[in-house]
Amino acid sequence: MDVIKPFMGIYSLVDRMKSNSKKCPHISSRLDALQRLVEFVQQKEADQLSEDVIKALKKLNIILESAREVLSKFNEECVMEHMMKSSGYKLEFENLNKSLTDAFVTLSGALHVHQEEKLVEQESMLAEQENKLQELEKKLVKQEKKLVEQENMLAEQENKLQELEKKLVKQEKKLVEQENMLAEQENKLQELEKKLVKQERKLVEQENRLAEQEDIVQRVESKMEYQSTGYYCILQ
After folding, report:
1. Is 130 helix (H, G, I), strand (E, B) or coil?
2. Measured between alpha carbons, how far is 130 from 107 in angstroms, rounded to an integer?
3. SS3 of residue 78 by DSSP
4. Which is deepest, 12, 16, 75, 111, by most CB within 10 Å?
5. In this structure, how many other beta carbons lie within 10 angstroms of the beta carbon of residue 230?
């Protein structure tokens, strides 16, 4: 609802009669106050206004139309001073001034109530937001604690992993040492086996030589015994 437009037509009528009317300054001041109030209200969206404020604006629109008719009729009179002395116009101006004052009070009151309701609503929303913020902060604190715990657990696991890696390195070194020792032992065993083979061969050779020598000795003994027996027979 555009309530500002009626103000412009009324202002032009008031300007033409200001010099001749003692009531016009009061009406003009009422219009100024109402216009500032309406301009403030119309800065808001329609869905942001309460029903009381909308009703007050509709009532003000009717009053402004009535004021325009009164002022137009007053300006159409040919003799201005004579009309100002007319008690009928004085009464109409007084009623108009009163209506504008009532409209200002009604709109101001409705706007004040609306602002208070809006303030209460905003305070409630602010309280809800603060509660939500507190809950979010609590959740954030819990998450931070959990994150710290997880980081500590991760650090412990990393330490354990490092220890296991160190143990693994030691075991690998020990395994390499054992493999080297085993290789040395195998080499020594091979050398011993070679020596044993040589010794066995040498022993076989010695046994063969010993057998040959025993055979020779037996032959010699047999020959000596034969010779000894023959010599004995000759002596007899």
Report:
1. helix
2. 33
3. coil
4. 111
5. 10
